[in-house]
Amino acid sequence: MTELDGRPVTAEELQALALTNYGHFTTMLVEDGRVRGLGLHLERLERDGEAVFGVRPDRERVRELARRQAPARGAAVLRVTLFDPAIDLGGVGGTASPRVLVTARPAGSGVPGPLRVRTVRFEREVPQVKSVALFGVLRQRRLAQRAGFDDALFVDRDGGLTEGATWNVGFLCGGEAVWPRGGYLPGTAMALLRAAVGGVDRRMGPELDGVDAVFATNATTGVRTVAAVDGREFDVRAVEAAGLARLRAAYLEVPGDPL
Q1: What are the distances in angstroms from CA 59 to CA 26, 79, 101, 251?
Q2: What does 26-63 look like in DSSP terms, one character per residue?
Q3: Do residues 75 and 69 touch, judged by C-beta distance below 8 A?
Q4: What percent of the chain lies above the pLDDT cut of 70?
Q5: Where are the extended beta strands (E) located within the chain?
Q6: String of b and e for 31-51 (b: at least 16 CB within 10 Å)?
Q7: Quick one: which of 137, 131, 133, 128 has its CA closest to 186?
Q8: pLDDT tens digit string along 99-123?
């Protein structure tokens, strides 16, 4: 299901998004009409709207349009995208009037399986903005999958781990949560988990010195185990016992806000 400003979107309106690909978005998990970190998602849309278009969307209007797609019971993944159908490659510099595209899809069930990732030197352009231009990160994911991994974990120019293709990374060191330093997209799930369990910021290299566990956070999948980074394997049961089960439980205890 896809609506633009509360009505069915046309192919012509989607053409600008497909061909020019200029805009920003957020993706949220709706469970029984509630969203963990709803305020963070709305703040992201406002912040990125200012950065991308010079226009901050009306958050109550966004909520109203998102509610149209959200089931009253059960779970769904909503993606809220802001773009301007009038913008094209030659006229991207004009005054923008971004509109709200809401897409709904069924949510997955259960805890997703562990990830096996490889590290790669990569920095996304303007990492603090959740842009619709995903070519760079998806190319790295594709290359990783072609090489036999599930996904890519990025290393910046200074040799520090920063983030995954569409997820944030965290580490457990002696039972304490450690978060990366560097340029990365600040995720809503990461922010909620940090508020729940605390932790410290530290530059972490691919060698993972002193690391007992690696995990991924994402608004649609929560806290996910990373079973391998390059050639280093982590015993999944040991990782859970080392504290990952505690982190996952802490995240799931965060109450959702009514959409």
Answers
A1: 13, 15, 14, 25
A2: EEEEEETTEETTHHHHHHHHHHHHHHHHS----HHHHH
A3: no
A4: 100
A5: 2-4, 7-8, 23-31, 34-35, 75-83, 99-106, 115-121, 151-155, 161-164, 168-173, 176-180, 200-202, 213-218, 222-229, 232-233, 257-258
A6: beeebbbbebbbebbbbbbee
A7: 128
A8: 999 999 999 877 788 999 999 999 9
3-state DSSP assignment of residue 192: helix
Terminal-to-terminal C-alpha distance of the chain:
18
DSSP 149: -
**What pLDDT sits at residue 239?**
79
16-37: average pLDDT: 95
Residue 110 dihedral angles phi and psi, to the nearest 5°? 80, 175
pLDDT in tens, 159-204: 999 999 999 999 999 989 999 999 999 999 999 999 999 999 999 9
pTM (2 decimals)?
A: 0.95
Query: How would residue 53 be classed by pLDDT, with cut points 50, 70 and 90?
Result: very high
- Helix 188-197 to helix 245-252 angle, to the nearest 10 degrees? 110
- Cα distances from 126 to residues 123, 132, 136, 204, in angstroms, run 9, 12, 12, 21
CB 29 within 8 A of CB 218: no
